[in-house]
Specification:
Elements: H1 2-14, E1 31-39, E2 45-47, E3 50-51, H2 55-62, E4 65-68, E5 71-75, E6 80-85, E7 90-98, E8 106-111, E9 116-118, E10 125-128, E11 137-143, E12 146-150, H3 152-161, E13 163-165, E14 172-177, E15 180-184
Parallel strand pairs: 1-6, 7-12
Antiparallel strand pairs: 1-2, 2-3, 4-5, 5-6, 7-8, 8-9, 10-11, 11-12, 13-14, 14-15
Domain DUF1285: 22-86, 89-184
Pfam families: DUF1285_C, DUF1285_N
Protein name: DUF1285 domain-containing protein
């Protein structure tokens, strides 16, 4: 049965226009159950306990990720199936910087699925202590309210770009991108 659901999802999504992201925000299917898919902390996708090895299938499914009432779904025009996400649905694995060290500096993040976001007002960066117990986790908004967790190497690069500021409120890291200053304490 779950193989039929996977095939159906793949067909529904494959028939869409070839674009960065399907318009999942325009679709209103009824919740039709759950599928035993888990997005693990390391960004790998599991189905019925086995690793989904086909990168094209993972990218396809990641393009129809949806968050609603704190639950993650795979959503097509015809189906909405709940899935499990261990920490965040996106893992930010790459970073690029344009105009580094200037007022026009722009930081671009890319997820392991190929999503690219410009750190700024639409895609803010913050530290969250609720994702992993007793750890501050750097998160950036990716899409539809879903967050991407910065890989350690990416966050280290952000720290190198930032400026440490000492203040009476406490020390923090100041990072500039797309005209927005982020204060990470």
């Amino acid at each position: 049965m779950t193989e039929n659901i996977l095939e159906s999802l793949a067909k529904n999504v494959a028939n869409m226009e070839d674009s960065n992201h399907p318009p999942v925000h325009l679709w209103s299917p009824e919740h039709c159950g759950e599928i035993n898919i888990v997005i693990q902390h390391d960004g790998s996708w599991m189905h019925d306990g086995g690793l989904i090895k086909r990168e094209a299938l993972v990218r396809l499914f990641s393009s129809v990720l949806w968050l609603e009432d704190s639950q993650h779904y795979l959503k097509t025009p015809a189906e909405k199936l709940s899935i499990t996400v261990e920490t965040t649905p996106f893992l930010i694995t790459q970073m690029a910087v344009k105009d580094a060290g200037t007022e026009q500096q722009k930081i671009l993040f890319t997820s392991s699925y190929g999503d690219t976001v410009l750190l700024g007002s639409e895609h803010p960066l913050h530290l969250d202590k609720n994702i992993i117990q007793d750890q501050e986790v750097p998160l950036v908004m990716v899409r539809y309210g879903m967050m991407g967790r910065l890989a350690r190497s990416v966050f280290e690069s952000v720290v190198e770009l930032g400026e440490f500021v000492e203040s009476d409120k406490g020390d923090y890291l100041k990072v500039l991108s797309d005209g927005v200053v982020f204060e990470l304490s």
